[in-house]
Amino acid sequence: MKSSILLGLFLSVSLVFSGCISPSENKNENITTLRIGYQPSTHQITEMVATDLGWWKEDLEPFGIKEVREFGFPSGPPEMQAMMSGELDIAYVGTSPPIAAIYQGLDARIVAAVNINGSDLVFGSDVPYRGPPSIANMKISTFPPGSIQDIILRKWLAENGVNISDSDIEAMGPGDAVSAIMSGEVDAVFLPHPAPAIIEMANKGRSEVASGEMWPGHACCSLVISGNLIRNQPDLVEQIVRIHIKATEYVNSHPEEAAQIYANHTSQDLEMVEYSIKTWDGRWISDPHLQIPSTIEYVRSYRQENHKTQMLTEEDLFDTSFYDRAD
After folding, report:
1. Please, what's the b/e burial string for 268-280 (b: 16 or more CB within 10 A of its CB; e: otherwise)?
2. Could you report the per-residue pLDDT of 154-205, keeping only the tens digit for each?
3. Contact criterion met (CB below 8 Å) for 277 and 313
4. pTM as predicted
5. CATH architecture, domain defined by 119-214
6. Where are the beta strands (DSSP E) in the chain?
7. pLDDT (average), residues 247-257
8. Residue 314: in which H helix or E strand, if any?
9. CA–CA separation, 225 and 319 (whole Å)
10. Domain 2-116+218-326 has CATH 3.40.190.10
11. Cβ neighbours around 234 below 10 Å, total
C-alpha cells in the first residue's frame, strides 16, 4: 500500500499535455503570468521551496507578475517540447534536454545551475551485480534518449567495455520505470532521486552505483529561461535568478524544512523524502559556471549520436550574466 501511495505523483505528472498550457499571445509584450515547468524530483526542490515560501509571488510582483503557474512533467524531453511550443517561460530541467531543443531551434538559455549528480543505478532485489560487464544482458530502464540519465548511462557502459548495441535499454518515464522494477519487468533502472529511495523503501531493489561515480560532478538540472524574457525583461530574469539562489541557499541550510516542503508540495511520504536526501550523492548549486564543462561534453555526445555537424558553444547554451550580477 505504501509503495503505491509513493508512486502517486510519479504516475500523475504525465497530466501535462499540449493544449493544457496557453502560449503567450504577444511575445514582445511584458508578461504578467509566469509559467514554470518542473519535474517531481528532489533535484528540483528549490523550485518548490520558492513556491511554498511565497517567493515567486511576492518577489516578482514588483516586476509586473500577477500570477505564477506551475506545470509538472515526467522528464526533460516533453518539458522542452512544451517550451519550444511557447508554453513555458522558465524550466527546471535536466541539462541535456535543452541541448537537443536548442539544436531544434529553441530560443532559450541556461541561466543558473540547479544540482549536480543525484541519480542511482538500482537493481532488483534478486538481481546480482558484478560490475558493468554483468549488465550487458540485462534489461534496464531509464529516461528517454536525450535525457541526462540516458546519456550518462550509455557513456558509462561504453567506457566500461559494454557494447551499447547489445544492451537492452528501455525508455520510460519515472512512474513506469519504478513500477517496472517493482514488478520484475526490468532488471535495473537508472533514475534520479527520489525514485531510488521509493524502490529501496518498498524493499524492491537496491542502489549499487551513483551517477557521481559514473561521472563525478556532472551537471544534472539547470534553470532555463526563454529568450523572450532574457531580451525583453532582463530585470525580471535577474530577479528570478536571485530567487533561485535564495531558494538554493535555503535548501542547503534547512534540509529538514526543505524535505517537509517537498513532501507537502508533492503529497509524498516525508520519511521517504528524508531518506532520499540522506542517501543521494547530489548537491544543490546555483552557479552555472560549474556546469559548463560537463554540459559541453553532453553536446559532444549528443552531436555524435545524432550526426550533427554544428558544435554548440558555451554562448549558444548559457547566459551567465544574470547569475554574475545577482550573486
Report:
1. bbeebbbbbbeeb
2. 999 999 999 887 789 999 988 999 999 999 999 999 999 999 999 999 999 9
3. no
4. 0.88
5. 3-Layer(aba) Sandwich (3.40)
6. 33-38, 67-72, 90-94, 108-113, 115-116, 119-124, 139-142, 168-171, 188-192, 205-210, 221-226, 283-284
7. 97
8. helix 314-317
9. 9
10. yes
11. 14
